[in-house]
Amino acid sequence: MELRHIRAFIAVAEELHFGRAAERLHIAQPPLSQQIRQLETHLGVRLFERNTRSVSLTSAGEAFLEPARAVLSGVEDAERAARAGGRGEYGRVTIGFAGASSEAALPVLARAVRRAHPNLELDMRGQLYANAALAKIADGSLDLGFVRLPIGAPGIEHQVVEEEELIVAMPLGHPLAAQETVALRDLAQEPFITFPADSGSSLHAITQQVCLNEGFAPTVVQSAPDSYTILALVAAGVGVTLTLTSCMHARQEDIVYRRLSDALPTLDAAIAWRSMNSSAALRAVLDVVREVYATPRRVDFDRFATPAQS
């Protein structure tokens, strides 16, 4: 039994006329009659009572009609699902992110994807810092990841989502908090709180590099696994930290943020993916990414910073 047999049966059962059923199926009447005979032979029952004047369903035909319709409907549903999957409307996309720095960008993207593709699943995986996310993107175990530029890995494409600044966070009442801006060299004797050296955090590497460029290695007194904990330790007076404008929202009590007076480049946050990833679902999400982040966002520094006290 083939789908053409089921389609032929349903057409005749609904039309109760071989000529009209043949027209509906865009075939000649003799092939239609042959398909019905083949189906009856396969099932071992007569499906129609027919003579020169009328066609009617037998009891076997009546019993067969609804299951036949269900089979055909299921096949049509499967065809539609396959085509939708090919367009990226179904499927799953994995996204890696790293906590506070992705907190603003990730919900915006997730909402936009759900609006555009409500049947597409986003599998969001936290605590994946830039280097770890890039490694998983490269080996195919992650589709998308929030990372920080520049990207040295080959075969990786990206879309900038946010233009960020490197800033210093210090406890409320710190002597340097009275200044509008702070120079890195003024932090040479300060205790630092950072991400662990082996965390894969690009911010840890950036902190080390910019301090060394000013002639000192930061004195790290404590490490913490995320920006929320690091900023809580700063607020508690344990030390200072270099952070990013995208993390300022994570802590506003008992803490002061200041811009650095040093000539430092903008640190762009981006979404990265593997060029050779052919997933239709990923391509659908990337269309949304390009629309949502056509203009990279910037954090309003003054909204979160505490004014300098005279």
From TrEMBL:
Residues 1-58 form the HTH lysR-type domain. Keywords: DNA-binding, Transcription, Transcription regulation. It comes from Agrococcus carbonis. Belongs to the LysR transcriptional regulatory family. The lineage of its organism: Bacteria, Bacillati, Actinomycetota, Actinomycetes, Micrococcales. PROSITE patterns: HTH_LYSR. PANTHER family: HCA OPERON TRANSCRIPTIONAL ACTIVATOR HCAR, TRANSCRIPTIONAL DUAL REGULATOR HCAR-RELATED. InterPro entries: LysR_HTH_N, LysR_subst-bd, WH-like_DNA-bd_sf, WH_DNA-bd_sf. One of its GO terms (cellular component) is protein-DNA complex. The keyword Acyltransferase does not apply. This is DNA-binding transcriptional regulator, LysR family. Pfam families: HTH_1 (PF00126), LysR_substrate (PF03466). One of its GO terms (molecular function) is DNA binding. The keyword Transcription applies.
